[in-house]
Amino acid sequence: MHDAAPFLSGFLLGLSLIVAIGAQNAFILRQGLLRQHVFVLCLICATSDAMLIAAGVAGLGTLVSSSPALIKAVTAGGAAFLFAYAAIAFRRAWRPRALHAAGNGRTDLRAAVAACLAFTFLNPHVYLDTVVLLGSLSSQYDGAGRLAYGAGAVIASFVWFFGLGYGARLLQPVFARPAAWRVLDILIGLVMAAIGASLLGGLG
């Protein structure tokens, strides 16, 4: 019971940081609707978060925040990738044959994993949220309390990504219509482009 408070604090804070409309979540949502490589992609996202959270709790957050050049480099690369993926999403929305949920048009596992890793590690917000913010806030705890805090944040990530990936199939009746896929891809493109623009704006 002594570690319940820091565990709950880490869980709720971790959940609040990842439950948002973002590039990574939009990608997992779409793959969940398609039922393509869901387990592998959710595992990659959650495990990547776990590694970054562990690094932050261990003290890496201070090092990252003290390197403006590193943050700028990751930000520029992330923005370029997001703009490219936004273009792909808009192209899918424009071409109806790319909107079907099953059967043909299956995404190659290697390409899906590469995209998932890019969404994870080319997004500077991931580092700011997991390594810097969660890591710095863990300093309020010592010993077992700090470990419990980190564990709570890690478990929140696993709960969210697997819930999103496998829960998306509940929306499949809606996405049986090509028009729904068109709307989703337009929204995904807009989200990616908006995040990319915000990243470039932060470089100024």
Structural summary, described in words:
This protein is an all-alpha fold and 204 residues long. It has one domain (4-202). It is 76% helix and 0% strand. It contains nine helices and no strands. Helix 1 (4-18) runs parallel beside helix 8, helix 3 runs parallel beside helix 6 (109-121) and helix 5 runs antiparallel to helix 9. Mean pLDDT is 79; it is low at 96-104.
Helix coverage percent = over 70%
Order of helices and strands: HHHHHHHHH
**Shape type:** globular
Total domain modules: 1
Low-confidence stretches: 96-104
Radius of gyration: 18 Å
Q: Structural class of the secondary elements? A: mainly alpha
Distance between the termini: 47 Å
Record keyword descriptors for this entry:
single chain, 204 residues, mainly alpha, 76% helix
Task: Briefly say what this structure is.
By secondary structure, this protein is an all-alpha fold.
Present the secondary structure layout.
Blueprint: H1 4-18, H2 23-34, H3 38-57, H4 60-65, H5 68-94, H6 109-121, H7 124-137, H8 144-167, H9 178-202
Helix pairs in contact: 1-8, 2-3, 2-8, 2-9, 3-6, 3-7, 3-8, 5-9
